[in-house]
Amino acid sequence: MSTLSHLDAQGNPSMVDVGQKTVSRRTARARSVVALGPDIMQHLTGTDIQTRKGPVFQTAIIAGTMAAKRTDDLIPLCHSLGLDNCQITITTSGSDAIVDCLVSTEGKTGVEMEALVGASVAALTIYDMCKALSHDIIITETKLMEKTGGKRDFKRDQD
């Protein structure tokens, strides 16, 4: 039976000891979907939405990258990781903005949380920058799409 990795023998919160783990290539890709609706999408020019605050998607990419690099400051039991790469892409489909965050490192622990935090903060930034146009914005999902390295790889079927 599986046990939760962030609990010690007494059931108290505990950072996982990765001291004996082997360094390996770790990657993760997470996705957040932001339902913007037609009121906001009518402002899409080319591949971005321009607002008084600036270009929405470009700003969200920067915010998501900054957040991925600081995941250990936000999630209490995450290890501090030096990321080798963080790539955030934002595409549109209908009236949705689709945020993908791909993160990689050479390390003893995975980068799933960094990818999830990067995608989430990018999605929240899109919300923040577009709320003046409409509050009818929904971040519909944030999920891990795939990861490699560590004990086992994972890949979600594409939706």
Automatic annotation (TrEMBL):
<dbReference type="InterPro" id="IPR050105">
    <property type="entry name" value="MoCo_biosynth_MoaA/MoaC"/>
</dbReference>
<dbReference type="InterPro" id="IPR036522">
    <property type="entry name" value="MoaC_sf"/>
</dbReference>
<feature type="region of interest" description="Disordered">
    <location>
        <begin position="1"/>
        <end position="23"/>
    </location>
</feature>
<comment type="function">
    <text>Catalyzes the conversion of (8S)-3',8-cyclo-7,8-dihydroguanosine 5'-triphosphate to cyclic pyranopterin monophosphate (cPMP).</text>
</comment>
<dbReference type="InterPro" id="IPR002820">
    <property type="entry name" value="Mopterin_CF_biosynth-C_dom"/>
</dbReference>
<dbReference type="InterPro" id="IPR023045">
    <property type="entry name" value="MoaC"/>
</dbReference>
<keyword id="KW-0456">Lyase</keyword>
<keyword id="KW-0501">Molybdenum cofactor biosynthesis</keyword>
<protein>
    <submittedName>
        <fullName>Cyclic pyranopterin monophosphate synthase MoaC</fullName>
        <ecNumber>4.6.1.17</ecNumber>
    </submittedName>
</protein>
<dbReference type="Pfam" id="PF01967">
    <property type="entry name" value="MoaC"/>
</dbReference>
<dbReference type="GO" id="GO:0006777">
    <property type="term" value="P:Mo-molybdopterin cofactor biosynthetic process"/>
</dbReference>
<dbReference type="GO" id="GO:0061798">
    <property type="term" value="F:GTP 3',8'-cyclase activity"/>
</dbReference>
<feature type="domain" description="Molybdopterin cofactor biosynthesis C (MoaC)">
    <location>
        <begin position="15"/>
        <end position="150"/>
    </location>
</feature>
<dbReference type="GO" id="GO:0061799">
    <property type="term" value="F:cyclic pyranopterin monophosphate synthase activity"/>
</dbReference>
<comment type="pathway">
    <text>Cofactor biosynthesis; molybdopterin biosynthesis.</text>
</comment>
